[in-house]
Amino acid sequence: MDIKGIDKEYVAGTYARFPLQLVSGKGSLVYDENGKEYIDLGTGIAVNAFGVADEKWQQAVIAQIGQIQHTSNLYYNAPCALLAKELCKRTGLKKVFFSNSGAEANECAIKAARKYGADKKGKEYDTIITLKNSFHGRTITTLSATGQDVFHEHFTPMTDGFVHAEPNDIEHMKRLVKAHKCCGIMIELVQGEGGVTALQPAYVKAVAELAKQEDLLFIVDEVQTGNGRMGELYAYMVYGIEPDVVTTAKGLGGGLPIGATMLGEKADVFTPGLNGSTFGGNPVCAAGALSILQRLDKTVLDGVKERSEYVFRELTGAKGIKSVSGLGLMIGVECEKDASAVIAGCMEKGVLVIKAKQKVRLLPALNISWEQLKKAVKIIKEVCAE
Ligand SMILES: Cc1ncc(COP(=O)(O)O)c(C=O)c1O
Asked: 224 CB less than 6 Å from ligand 1?
């Protein structure tokens, strides 16, 4: 079957796909339709936390499918409750709203901020400050939150109530707080789609302090940075701050769709009817997520740090590489060659990497074997140096 042709004919044309069909895999190895093997450093954009067909994750998911695959939120289900408990235990946050994607997790956080502003200061306190170059999702409201004009094109009018601050410029953020009736600040600590750039720690601390002083909900979007990828459970832990709301998705589900909006005491604003989702908290997705979360222990997190240090050490200053950015296992490589040419060269040699702006982006599985990581890094260096 000509899957590529069928896809081109029938799937909405929103994706510029690589010329590759993935059919199976094990851990960090994936195989295309011709049986060619690749070391996967993209993990479905930071989703397959422990790689492909991970046994423990599979067991958790299959066991739950065998019991009950969906309940709706009209009833209690154990994986949903236990996952929420585990997330709260590990973060100190108080409540979790489950959805199906990063965008939805952020929509919920935006609702929480608006509700908080209205309750505390009045309905007109509805503005949320986000950062230029950020990415928060594809719904109209999360696009409005996204501080990149290119994503707004074709879809105006955007949702009102978002202003965008210059990253790493606290004075600009303060000016915006003064100029608008604000209810929240939402930031990514490492801007992913914006080019894998980590915010400066002093700036992040100052933003957290400002949110506290001005009584704004401080939301950290950990859709991509979360769930072990930074060598801590969440990036905010690396930065030593205490957000009021943490949103996540991607790696939490290990390959099944789940979004989570974790709400601290200040952000515990929801009452029945104020938010909801048919699939949110689905028992199969939650069972898979719980199995992932329970395995993100010190050994795995230390392993992420070691792998990250290795990649930074190997690639920084290597021939054909201008700079290496990011944090943990979310790494951006600025190459002398065009990023697309590097991606194609790596693919040819059996390594899958992806793009973020003009950088090559690496998002390997948290437990990628050293042998596979070393082999992949060697190939990236060869391709960049050619
Ligand atoms: C930081 C961040 N927020 C939100 C999103 C949107 O997530 P989703 O595609 O699951 O809606 C993404 C996706 O790349 C992201 O990186």
From this structure: yes
